[in-house]
Amino acid sequence: MEAIQQKVQLREHLIYEEMLEAANWMFQDDTPKEEIACFLTALSTKGETAHEVAALATVMRSFALNVPTRASIYMDNCGTGGDGLNTFNISTASAFVLAGAGVQMAKHGNRKISSASGSADVLEALGIHTNITIEQTVELLETEGIAFLYAPNVHPKLKRIGEVRRYLGKPTIFNLVGPLTNPVSLSTQFTGINRPNFVMEYASVLQMLGRERAIVVSGPQGLDEASLAGQNTFVLVDKGDLIPFSLTAEDAGLSYAPLESIRGGNADENAAIMRKLLAGKQSAYFDTVLLNAGIGLFSYGKAETVKEGVEMARDSIFSGRALQKLEAVVAFSERIKEVEVGQ
């Protein structure tokens, strides 16, 4: 392992097998946290590669708990985070819209690490219990078609790594790997990354990991979501092909809006934003969710184009189905809490 650490310090890329060894080393309980922090910092300084990301994702998934879902086409729209732009929880809001449109959503997420409110934080502010069992997660997926997999619950080996990441307080390779380690078997995915120059490489990682169809996006200023504020950079994974394309809000039938118009706050503030837009209040928040849910529907194969997906997303909200999904998950959480209190 010493030779691998030295190689990274010299800003040399690791081959897949070397990163497999390094990943297993990071997850060992006796590996000093200080050494892990140094290794992650050196990787970030060097710049991570597709093979390094794929290797870490493979090891991390091997340590994840099994989630025995029935056969279906499940999708995740978790992004990498780490863009530092303090937007509201776009992908979490979009997940309810996608579920309302009939997509089977297995949404992976975590607490805030380099943002004001992570997906788990805003879910709890909405009244959704994140600390649920695997059996409860499967039940929720099968009854409502949407469930949220809180990363520490399904990745028990992540606890020490999480402590290191919080100590560092800045994005690492684990931000890139997060969306790739959902323990639910995914054949399709829509994910955002905060690195416009890494979109093609990230798409190749998804292809290595067996996604038949997926979309990677990096928005203006490195936003890890699609944005109304200019040109968004994409790569579509379609079986054996990697297809780059770009898209603006206007291309999808929406209007330009600056990033300042979708700033978020703490978990309670973001939860209030989410409830209002899911109830149909139109704003830049609303249109941003339409755009991202529309891309998700295109990635899932329900929509022929992103523009068609945007209209399907709009119908999911205005029909009340998206908000119904939120209320159903909240009600499920309340039932769990009642049972726990009664025990």
TrEMBL record:
Residues reported to bind 5-phospho-alpha-D-ribose 1-diphosphate: 79, 82-83, 87, 89-92, 107-115, 119
GO molecular function, one term: anthranilate phosphoribosyltransferase activity
Record-listed Mg(2+) 2 binding positions: D224, E225
InterPro entries the record matches: Anthranilate_Pribosyl_Tfrase (IPR005940), Glycosyl_Trfase_fam3 (IPR000312), Glycosyl_Trfase_fam3_N_dom (IPR017459), Glycosyl_Trfase_fam3_N_dom_sf (IPR036320), Nuc_phospho_transferase (IPR035902)
Cofactor annotation remark: Binds 2 magnesium ions per monomer.
Domain Glycosyl transferase family: 74-323
Pathway info: Amino-acid biosynthesis; L-tryptophan biosynthesis; L-tryptophan from chorismate: step 2/5
Required cofactor(s): Mg(2+)
Reactions that this protein is recorded to catalyse: N-(5-phospho-beta-D-ribosyl)anthranilate + diphosphate = 5-phospho-alpha-D-ribose 1-diphosphate + anthranilate
Chain sites annotated for binding anthranilate 1: G79, N110
Residue positions binding Mg(2+) 1: S91, E225
Superkingdom of the organism of origin: Bacteria
A Pfam family hit: Glycos_trans_3N
Amino acids binding anthranilate 2: R165
Quaternary state and interactors: Homodimer.
Function comment: Catalyzes the transfer of the phosphoribosyl group of 5-phosphorylribose-1-pyrophosphate (PRPP) to anthranilate to yield N-(5'-phosphoribosyl)-anthranilate (PRA).
Family the UniProt entry places it in: Belongs to the anthranilate phosphoribosyltransferase family.
Descriptive protein name: Anthranilate phosphoribosyltransferase
Source species of the chain: Lysinibacillus pakistanensis
Upper taxonomic lineage: Bacteria, Bacillati, Bacillota, Bacilli, Bacillales
